Amino acid sequence: MAQDGKKAVAIVAAGSDPGGNYGKFVMDPLVRDLKGAALEIHDVPFKGGWKGGVPVNGDVVQDISGNEHDAAVVGSLMTLLKQGFNHSAATGAGGAYVEGTAHAAAAIRAQDADEYLMTWYGRLPIAANFNTTSTPLPFMGSGNYQTGAMLADITQYTGGGNRIIGFRRQTGPNTIGAVAAIAVPAADLVDAGDGFGAFCQLATWRKDGVTRGSYRTAANGPTVATGETSGSDNTVDFSACKFNVGVGPNFWSNSAPALLANNFASHRWSVAALRLATEVLDIPAILAADWARVNGRYPAW
User: What is the DSSP track for 47-106?
Assistant: First the structure.
């Protein structure tokens, strides 16, 4: 069933449907909120986004934005953790991740302005497993700026004695702009009883030359940090890059710190091209509304 040339999506993915009424066809509310800017939305706990069961190599993770740009499971090492993809069994780079198509990066590049919104929901590592090195490891990535092209990524690392979430953007060959960095509150890295930390929303966006990152859990946030306050678009063509979540092919390794830092899980992620929006967007308000819907489902998963 199609609407306006796009695939209709059964049930509001980020809402609740206690009656199990899967006969409705409605878009994820994030699509509405982004006013035409949504490129990909993937939601593992939602029955219309993931078939269920343990993921194996080649399995499809549906795009519920209506754009039909599905992602695929790479490797067969992921398991399920509270209906999210658990990446902790990865043994090195590219060991346990989900990869999309190049559609999203190409659409952002085509707007002649690197204005984007990337959002990732998942379970953090506990303090003992969080990346203890200063080398960032991505929860969500789009390439490797050191060896080629990358739009942006959302990472974990340690700096100044703090566990940090870093939001990076490539600006040129082997170059990134100022990193938006947020220290993770210690309470969010406490074992929740299953070996993982808090459920969180991590997001990064660039608008009018300014890059920002946002951190939120049920107990803390939202905390917003600014990276670049001005600057030009990436001089490297990233249009062929593919967004991925988990222990992907870039920056990860089989080092001891990485084999602990991979103890996290991915539940939902999305990409938007902000220049495609038909109205002015209030990104913090959009993130707040999406968090309220998604976190409202979390206890029931």
Answer: TTT---S---TT-EE--TTSS---EEEESS--EEETTEEE-TT--STTSEEEE--SHHHH
The boundaries of the domain holding residue 294 are 2-300
Our CA dihedral for 202, 35, 152, 170, rounded to 10 degrees, sits at -140
What is the C-alpha to C-alpha distance for residues 75 and 218, in angstroms, rounded to an integer?
Answer: 32
CB of 35 within 8 A of CB of 277? yes
Residues 167 and 154: their CA atoms lie apart, in Å, by 5
**Do residues 44 and 123 make contact, with C-beta atoms less than 8 angstroms apart?**
no
Q: What angle do CA 215, 185, 212 make, to 5 degrees?
A: 25
Rounded distance between C-alpha atoms, residue 91 and residue 82, angstroms: 22
Strands, E assignment, the chain: 2-3, 6-7, 38-43, 60-61, 71-74, 79-81, 84-86, 96-99, 116-123, 137-141, 152-159, 162-172, 175-176, 180-183, 199-207, 210-217, 223-226, 244-247, 265-273
Count Cβ atoms below 10 Å from residue 20 Cβ, excluding itself: 8
Domain CATH number, residue 178: 2.60.120.200
Q: What is the pTM of this model?
A: 0.92
Q: Which residue has the tokens 């060959």?
A: 173
- Count of domains for the chain: 1
Q: CA-to-CA distance for 67 and 7, rounded, in angstroms?
A: 6
> 6 is written with which tokens?
């796009």
Segment 238-286, tens digit of pLDDT: 999 999 999 999 999 999 999 999 999 999 999 999 999 999 999 999 9
